[in-house]
Amino acid sequence: MNILMLLGSPRSQGNSAAIAAHFAKTATALGAEVRTVELNGLSYRGCQACYACKTKADRCVLQDDLSPVLAAVEAADVLVLATPIYFGDVTAQLKGFLDRSYAFLAPTYLTGGPKNRLNDKKLIFIQTQGNPDPSFFGGVFPRINHFMEWMGFTDGQLIRACGLGPQRGQEIPTQVLAEVETAARGLLARA
């Protein structure tokens, strides 16, 4: 199984990155190939609304550091998106990737035809937040999962850690780590 992890945090050692690293360690131990990309280390632009991906090509035509990442999404069986919540939403780094993933929608989605170019890929969404209330920012994953389903992702799964502050090296709650391990085992068992 080929797993691509995109880290949306600007902090390499942040909470969402630590949870994603635990997922990668578990999945690798179970035989998966895992590639991790820190979006903050890339130089890329957001979607330019040029519609070339719908009229001239079957991919995003921008050429920058995100181009090989978009190609890697197509090759992956599982996509893991990891992000803290900043100002009520995903980070700017992850939002830039999500906007560019518009290229994964088939041109026919505009006319009522098939929507996706990707088929049966799995999505794991790791969300960390400072607010301890799980209902706070509860709309982030359903909204993003909706668009990922349009692209062909199935079985989107949320792993959320609440009440984590900005301290580096903060201990991740054991129930979150157990949830990560269960998710990894579940994916590899279905492979």
Commentary on this structure:
The protein has 191 residues and is α/β, with parallel strands linked by helices. It is 35% helix and 20% strand. A 5-stranded parallel beta sheet has the order 2-1-3-4-5, with helices on both faces. β3 (78-84), α4 (92-100) and β4 (121-129) form a beta-alpha-beta unit.
Task: Summarize it.
The chain has 191 residues and is of the alpha/beta class.
Topology summary:
Layout: E1 2-7, H1 15-29, E2 33-38, H2 52-55, H3 67-75, E3 78-84, H4 92-100, E4 121-129, H5 140-151, E5 153-162, H6 174-190
Parallel strand pairs: 1-2, 1-3, 3-4, 4-5
Helix pairs in contact: 1-6
**What is the alpha-carbon Rg in Å?**
16 Å
What is the tally of beta strands? 5
* β-sheet strand percentage: 15-25%
What strand line-up does the widest sheet have?
Answer: 2-1-3-4-5
The percentage helix is 25-40%
Cα shape: globular
Total helices: the number is 6
Main beta sheet strand tally, sense and closure: 5 strands, parallel
Series of secondary-structure elements, N-terminal to C-terminal: EHEHHEHEHEH
**End-to-end CA span:** 7 Å
